[in-house]
Automatic annotation (TrEMBL):
GO MF term set: ATP binding; phosphoribosylaminoimidazolesuccinocarboxamide synthase activity
Name of the protein described by the UniProt record: Phosphoribosylaminoimidazole-succinocarboxamide synthase
Listed EC numbers: 6.3.2.6
Domain of life: Bacteria
Classification lineage: Bacteria, Bacillati, Bacillota, Clostridia, Eubacteriales
Reaction equations catalysed: 5-amino-1-(5-phospho-D-ribosyl)imidazole-4-carboxylate + L-aspartate + ATP = (2S)-2-[5-amino-1-(5-phospho-beta-D-ribosyl)imidazole-4-carboxamido]succinate + ADP + phosphate + 2 H(+)
Gene3D superfamilies: ATP-grasp fold, B domain (3.30.470.20), Phosphorylase Kinase, domain 1 (3.30.200.20)
Pathway where this protein functions: Purine metabolism; IMP biosynthesis via de novo pathway; 5-amino-1-(5-phospho-D-ribosyl)imidazole-4-carboxamide from 5-amino-1-(5-phospho-D-ribosyl)imidazole-4-carboxylate: step 1/2
């Protein structure tokens, strides 16, 4: 597998072409941003942790029937993934009120929601990823009804699988964000990452935050939190 030209650079990752037209290489950076890029910083070794944690969780989900873009981890920061067209919808799943939901609806952080909440945002940095619903998805032709229904089904199943998996590691899954991609043959697969950047992880007992909120909110011990998640998931 040959790493070729850079195709794309995002806020946390770079993507490179390979000599196989169906595969690309993702390279995770230590760069951290929040509030749509307004706050910038570095979290040491975040790229390594997010690469390894994402792959660990994607492999687990694959064994439980969720198709993902994961192919092979080739270094601490680099992974071969299927080349996909990203569906421009950020899917947010919430079990416990936190973050923007708490702010928007006045529900105190930490309140258990009576029912799991599924939200969609239109993935567009210039617009600040505005929240949308299924009518917007179809009006803008971001996905077909069949595709969105599959995306919603996968997202709820991923929530159940991750919640159970993390519970055994004393991690409470508060909420998280998913992105999906479409392969050349039109198959919808889970893409992007599942990491402390994109999930809220709280210690089950102490409720200590073990995720990017420590960076967003200047809480300190950011690196320690990322390391702790890697330790609990990968045992190192
Ligand atoms: P929110 O409460 O700020 O809307 O975030 C909900 C979840 O989505 C939280 O686990 C963090 C994640 N998230 C991202 O992965 N990327 C983003 O750009 C935002 C705003 C949130």
């Amino acid at each position: 597998m040959k790493k070729m030209e850079q195709l794309y650079e995002g806020k946390a990752k770079k993507v490179y072409a390979t000599d196989d037209p169906n595969l690309v290489i993702v390279d995770y950076k230590d760069d951290a941003t929040a509030f749509n890029g307004l706050k910038k910083g570095t979290i040491q070794d975040k790229g390594i942790i997010n690469n390894r944690v994402t792959n660990h969780l994607m492999k687990m989900l694959e064994t439980k029937g969720i198709p993902t873009h994961f192919v092979e981890e080739i270094s601490d920061r680099e992974t071969i993934v299927k080349k996909v067209t990203i569906v421009p919808i950020e899917v947010i799943v919430r079990n416990i009120a936190a973050g923007s939901l708490s702010k928007r609806l006045g529900i105190p952080e930490g309140t258990k929601l009576a029912k799991t909440v599924l939200e969609y945002s239109y993935k567009d940095d210039a617009l600040g990823d505005p929240m949308i619903n299924d009518y917007h998805v179809f009006a803008m032709e971001l996905a077909t009804p069949e595709e969105l229904s599959l995306i919603a089904d996968y997202s709820f199943k991923i929530n159940d699988l991750l919640t159970d998996y993390l519970k055994d590691l004393n991690i409470e899954l508060i909420d998280f964000k998913l992105e999906y991609g479409k392969t050349a043959d039109g198959t919808i697969v889970l893409a992007d990452e599942i990491s402390p950047d994109t999930c809220r992880f709280w210690d089950t007992v102490t409720h200590e935050k073990l995720d990017k909120d420590r960076f967003r909110r200047d809480m300190g011990n950011v690196e320690d939190a990322y390391q702790e998640i890697m330790k609990r998931l990968l045992g190192e």
